[in-house]
Specification:
The chain is mostly beta strands. It has 2 helices and 29 strands. It has a single domain, classed as Beta-galactosidase, Chain A, domain 5.
Length: 365
């Protein structure tokens, strides 16, 4: 058998645009489905030891539900994932006002963000650098989504050419590769906003992931105020409920009266990833009950860990109802409010540069 990608019609938007769904399959029974609306990962099927397929990512049955979704279900987030304080930033002496769509701040690109775009799609066999694979390398087809975000769209400067590529190999690695170029200086922070429950999406009820264990490779995290805006200093995880350097049950400290957990109504913070090299280990999520594990590796400097604190009575796939703390998001990205924080890793992209980031989600059935 060979790795494959197949397409089918998923639906038609309210503006009349067709949306395709692509199924990526490997030879181990794993299947990932992605739609061209928002680049949403609609399902991730993983077999258990008996070969029974379980869908471990939350989602919806219909395109109309994704169109009206307000919790970034499974989508590509951009131009800027996470928050920008006071909905504005200054770049090269020019101030750029943005949509204030979250307590007076800018969140996830606003209502005109990439999660609401119908992306163009093609299938190829090139790597992230655009080079054809060598003959002795296994053919790993990629689903490549592309989009042009015009100068001024969403308030951001520069016409942005964006590509997001998905591939699935026989090592059970779902790789997401991000590329972007611009014709004017701008800021950009792309991520994928999947909600995971390793028991299966149908178990994403109240506190459905508190028994999951999580390890995060980070000595520090980005502390925030009660609106999710970073405070002046990074904080050490040691001695706090934010310490996941060794595998820890998510529910062990989530109800702690620690100021950061109270501010976020649970975990909703960016961890400053440790390690070096082009692709660093970020996190390992595991479910002791089912034995499933999800490992995250990335080129990004941070990872937002979110415990779905604001998901309530959400009607999901196949009659499932998703609830508060029923799933987790592991969003590899740059830090929130980086355009206003010169002490953070830069999110500025200039005309002579190319953004190139990679995240790998490896599943262990």
């Amino acid at each position: 058998m060979s790795l494959s990608i197949e397409s089918s019609l998923f639906g038609v938007t309210k503006e009349g645009r067709s949306v395709e769904q692509y199924a990526l399959r490997n030879n181990n029974g794993i299947e990932v489905r992605v739609i061209t609306f928002g680049g949403v990962i609609t399902s991730l099927l993983v077999p258990d030891e008996a070969g029974r397929l379980v869908d471990i990512i939350l989602g919806y049955d219909t395109l109309q539900q994704y169109e009206s979704c307000g919790i970034s279900m499974g989508c590509i987030v951009g131009r800027y994932g996470n928050r920008i304080a006071n909905a504005c930033f200054t770049l090269d002496g020019v101030q750029y006002p943005l949509e204030a769509n979250n307590n007076g701040h800018h969140l996830h690109g606003g209502s005109d963000g990439f999660q609401k775009v119908v992306w163009n799609a093609e299938i190829d066999h090139t790597n992230v650098a655009g080079e054809r694979l060598h003959a002795d390398q296994p053919a790993v087809p990629r689903l490549v989504l592309s989009h042009v975000s015009k100068d001024g769209q969403g308030g951001y400067p520069g016409t942005l050419q964006v590509q997001v590529a998905y591939s699935l190999n026989d090592d059970n690695e779902l790789t997401i590769q991000y590329q972007a170029t611009t014709n004017r200086p701008t800021v950009i922070n792309l991520t994928s906003h999947g909600y995971f429950n390793l028991k299966g999406h149908q178990y994403a009820g109240v506190d459905g992931v508190l028994g999951h264990q999580l390890q995060i490779s980070a000595e520090q995290f980005v502390s925030t105020n009660n609106e999710g805006i970073p405070l002046p200093d990074l904080c050490d995880v040691e001695g706090t409920p934010m310490d996941f350097r060794t595998a820890t049950a998510i529910g062990d400290h989530i109800t702690s009266n620690h100021q950061q957990l109270v501010a976020g109504s649970g975990y909703d913070h960016t961890w400053v990833l440790s390690g070096s090299g082009p692709l660093r280990f970020a996190a390992l999520l595991s479910d002791p009950e089912s034995g499933r594990r999800l490992q995250v590796s990335t080129t990004q400097p941070g990872m937002q860990f979110y415990t779905a604190n604001h998901v309530n009575h959400c009607a999901g796939k196949a009659g499932a109802e998703y609830q508060r703390r029923g799933a987790v998001c592991l969003e590899t990205q740059h830090f929130p409010d980086s355009p206003n924080r010169p002490d953070f890793p830069s999110t500025v992209l200039r005309e002579t540069e190319k953004l190139s980031e990679t995240t790998v989600y490896r599943v262990y059935p």
